[in-house]
Specification:
binds magnesium ion; 7 strands; 4-stranded mixed β-sheet; 18% helix; binds 8-OXO-2'-deoxyguanosine-5'-triphosphate; 133 residues
Length: 133
């Protein structure tokens, strides 16, 4: 199976204690689960360019500060993904669900309460651990 490269943003609020999540549509792969906004990298596209493009397209923000956080590879029964997670620590504009998706800011300590795609388990645990330090 071909691995699909995906780039997604862990978007922090100004005080760094909340992150922005989006609910995947029921008909999408991993539907009805919460995600870090992002999407598939285009052929030949640099990671940061893909991140900036996806966050502009999906939630209408302009990323002004970001850093790579972690890479997670995961095999779903139907798909193999390589998720490139980037921290987004500054942006311009007010996030909105440009594709009709529900968005919410969630305190890091509350991340355990939502359903994420299986591939996100490690990053969710890492963010939860950071919240209780
Ligand atoms: N954006 C995002 N995708 C994730 C996360 N966790 C996870 O397993 N995925 C998977 C679900 C999808 O198979 C893939 C992302 O693809 P996508 O559907 O968002 O791609 P896209 O925005 O380019 O959308 P499309 O135009 O292809 O519909 O990665 C996550 O936290 N964020
Ligand atoms: Mg997407």
């Amino acid at each position: 199976m071909k691995t699909i490269d995906v780039v997604a943003g862990v978007i922090f609020n100004g005080s760094g204690d909340k992150v922005l999540l989006a609910l995947r549509k029921p008909e999408q792969h991993q539907g009805n689960r919460w995600e870090f906004p992002g999407g598939k990298l285009e052929a030949g596209e640099a990671l940061q360019d893909g991140l900036v493009r996806e966050l502009q397209e999906e939630i209408g923000i302009v990323v002004t500060q970001c850093q790579p956080r972690t890479i997670i590879e995961h095999s779903y029964p139907d798909k193999q993904v390589r998720l490139h997670f980037w921290d987004v620590t500054a942006f311009e504009g007010e996030p909105a669900g440009c594709e009709g998706q529900t968005l919410r800011w969630l305190a890091l300590a509350e991340l355990g309460a939502l359903e994420f795609p299986e591939a996100n388990q490690a990053i969710v645990n890492e963010l939860l651990a950071a919240a209780i330090k």
